Amino acid sequence: MNWQRTKEIVRKEFRQSFREPRTRAAMFVPPILQFLVFGFVVNLDVERSRLALLDLDRSPASRELRAAFEGSKYFTVTGTPADEAEMQDMLDRDRVHSALVIPPDFGRDLARGRATKIQMLVEGSNSNTASILSNYAADIVRTYSSGRMVELINQKRMARGGAVAKVQAPGIDLQHRVWFNPELKSRNYFIPGVAVNIITIVTLMLTSMAIVREKEIGTMEQLMVTPIRPVELMLGKTLPFAVVGLFDLAMIIVLGMVVFHIPFRGSALLMLGGAICFLFTTLGAGIFISTVSRTQQQAIMATFFFFQPAFMLSGFAFPIRNMPEPVQWLTYLNPLRYFIEIARGVFLKGSGIDVLWTQFAALVVFGVVVMTMSAVRFRKRLD
Fold it and tell me: How far is CA 227 from CA 1, 4, 154, 222, in A?
């Protein structure tokens, strides 16, 4: 193997890629667009949700409950319907996302220590948002109820001249703490996955297009009659896009930390090692696509045919544990799954190789198998 010839092919590929506008755009436009879309547009956080409050009691206790909801950053009372018909109309017209119904005698029942119920109606066309709003409302009501219980105990104690009242507060005090993403920001979950998708689509598409481009313009035959060996040509065609993919990955990481303040708690070297292991799979797949495609348009279509199922089964947007069991088993054959687990582990958890070694081992196995099969087919095509 002659490294000088490989170096010249790499240099030629860099010049040709940066000279062609379409290839140059494919290197940098998709990373920036995905970063902006998933950072600013795709947001699953629920804040300042519009709430209609139907107060049928109009007591100090009901006003305190309303104040508890208004004091939360998750709800904004934008409607006070006079009756249930008006409340239903507000939900039907999508003027509010949820409605709270406080029944009559709410305050009197609380003052007497009786159990009372309130009703929360949530617009459920978006099941994720509905579930989040229901949990937020339950937390607010639970906190309010605990406060009222303490007040009731104190009132009973004062009425008995300081004696201990026979009012029992709940025996379990649940205190929860969220690890790794305390603010529950969805962009903290998405941006590491965006970095994985970027390095996948860029290296996969550019590698397949670069080799097919040689066929289209008729220079592949010229390369075949030169002393260049297939392995040298393959390295010369893939190394430039490996560098571009790593550059895009670093750019997304830096932008995520600077623009969105995404935490990066792990090792940058571990992230780099995972990316290099993953590149063997994407570059190998790109070489394979180039051997079955005759035009760049075919290469682009084949790239998306490979990428879309892998993206859907990677756990990027949809939790794998929520998928049907046969599909969950299928995800073990998806290299994107393992690199996304590495990226989120390094970003948010600060995980080390002692935790992520199984994902690294899977990527190494996939990379060796895919690259070997693609190299063999690439050699046969050249021969």
Answer: 11, 12, 92, 10
Which strands, in side-by-side order, build the sheet including 75-79? 75-79, 49-55, 98-102, 119-122
Helix (H) or strand (E) holding 80: none
Residue range 307-344, pLDDT digits in tens: 888 988 998 877 888 788 899 999 999 999 999 999 99
Residue (of 179, 177, 204, 164) closest to 308 by Cα position: 204
Helix (H, G, I), strand (E, B) or coil at 34: helix
CA angle at residue 99 from 109 to 61, to 5 degrees? 25
Q: How many CB atoms lie within 10 A of CB 344?
A: 24
pLDDT band at 159 (very low <50, low <70, confident <90, very high): low
Q: How far apart are CA 134 and CA 49, in angstroms?
A: 11
CB 37 within 8 A of CB 124: no
What is the pTM (predicted TM-score) of this model? Answer: 0.74
